Amino acid sequence: MLKRRLEFLFVFILMACFYVVFFTDYSQAIKVTAILIYAVIIFISMYSLMLENRSAQHTLMWMYVMLLFPVGGYFFYLFSGQLYLKGYLYKSKRTRDRDQWEKQMRKEESRDLSFLIENQQCFAQYAKNATLTPITTASRAKILKNGEETFTEIKKRLREAKKFIHMEYYIFRSDRLGKEIIDILIEKARQGVEVLFIFDAAGSMKIAATDLKDMQEAGIKAAPFSPLKYGFFNQKFNFRNHRKIVIIDGKIGFTGGLNVGVEYLGEDDKIGFWRDTHMLLTGESVYTSLCVPA
Questions:
Q1: Tens of pLDDT, residues 57-68
Q2: In 3D, which of 215, 242, 235, 289 has the Cα closest to residue 76?
Q3: Which of 67-96 are b and which e, b meaning 16 or more Cβ less than 10 Å from the residue's Cβ?
């Protein structure tokens, strides 16, 4: 919060210095002072830039931008250069996750895929390389063709949870459907079931603060992904979590295209019937799904 305020204070000071130097009749001494203040702020900004975790090429590029384009270059850096850095850091996290998966995959025995035809084997290898997760052969998937099928099954399985529920969603609304699921989660948490709930801060803006409070008071660990502390002006806004995952006791998993909201049940008159697909997973694939939210 303090860092962000300082950044905008620097922008204001730079604009003031620029105005004093080029658009006023102040004395030479005042203009020299304004130039020195401008130079100090640019120096501090470039020093901070060098400490950031980015490549040498991008560091030099932003230094040149700040030097050659007064005020505008710094302002552009705040809303573009730091956006690149956020993407770079997210990419670094994905690289670390990939390395962890590769270590895990080395421990796994190679699965015999000879029963697949050639095209299927190629696709299986592609899926393994793209997702960096092991191929599972002891898994089952039940296709859920619409919202009614999906959420009827999800609510049923949530009520049967004995040990833990891990849930992660992009959109989670505090409407009729959302409150039904929240009530089940609260009930299970009070029964001693561990409940972890991650929701995307941008996609789930309409989740009520009172619902979050009720969940947390019941012992549910609910937290937003990438909070928007500064609204739409936050560089994190484009880095969202579009996952829709539910894991129950490590035995049952759900994933697919449906978020939590009555529109996915076809109850929004403006949208009408919503066609999307979800899956109920059992077997080894549930384990790999369980590792994703971490």
A1: 766 776 777 777
A2: 235
A3: eeebbebbbebbeebbbbbbeeeeeeeeee
Indicate whether 148 and 250 sit together in one domain: yes
Contact at 8 Å (CB) between 11 and 66?
A: no
Domain limits at 287? 137-291
Q: What is the dihedral of CA 234, 90, 209, 163, to 10 degrees?
A: 180
Q: Which amino acid is at 236?
A: K
Q: Are residues 75 and 167 in the same domain?
A: no
Q: Which of 135, 157, 185 is the last residue of a domain?
A: 135
Instruction: Give yes or no: residues 176 and 256 share one domain.
Output: yes
Q: Are strands 194-200 and 221-225 parallel, antiparallel or unpaired?
A: parallel
Rounded to two decimals, the pTM is 0.67
Q: What's the number of CA atoms in the CB half-sphere (13 Å) around residue 89? A: 12
| Region of residue 283 (phi > 0: left; psi between -120 and 50: alpha; otherwise: beta) | left
| 152 and 280 assigned to the same domain | yes
Report the C-alpha gap between 20 and 176 in whole angstroms. 58
pLDDT for the residue numbered 85: 46
Q: Which CATH number does the domain housing residue 253 bear?
A: 3.30.870.10
